[in-house]
Amino acid sequence: MDKTDYKKIYKELYMPGRSPALVNVPPIPFIMIDGQGNPNDADGEYAQAVSLLYALSYAIKMNKTGDSVPEGYFEYVVPPLEGLWDFRGTKETFPQDKSDFIWTSMIRQPDFVTPPVFSRACRTVRSKKGLDTSKARLCTWEEGLCVQCMHLGPYDDEPATLQKISGFLNSNGLLPDISGKRRHHELYLSDPRKTAPEKMKTVLRLPVRKASGQSGSL
Hints:
single chain, Multidrug-efflux Transporter 1 Regulator Bmrr, Chain A, 6-stranded antiparallel β-barrel, 5 helices, about 25% helix, globular
């Protein structure tokens, strides 16, 4: 039986083109971990969060035998890592000091992952891997109206793609809609350990709203 692969089923969310486009993102269940600091620190908070997210996600995926199989379980591919980003300081320029980043690291979960299923995965990860799961949470997050674009290349070159998104907003009567809950969003489709920097694929997504006086659809 084929495994459910969210990247293939929801191509409009995971495989956009290299030109910005509008998308309405539905409610999606995630395991999320909040933190701050430089994501490139080898032993930093971000690296620890990513390790915990994958440990929990694979504990759920492998929980398919015995008496604890979740109701409605199906075979699936663990979805890609995603992240919400903000930073301390003024918002006019892209931060030069990556220690200023404030982030939420997250991985999508199948709909059968209920709070009891998540709690069981936390217990498994604590007992088998000795990891502290207290910062992880399961929640359903509705992102809503966004503009997104595929970025091809290293993460440090993202400002060029963000400039394309900004131009799309200006041409279509849209404004960024950044708030405590709606933030710059990245979906990581490439493994930086195995992919040349120039070939890395990252979906860049920005929450938006229509400017005052704008109506209709794009």
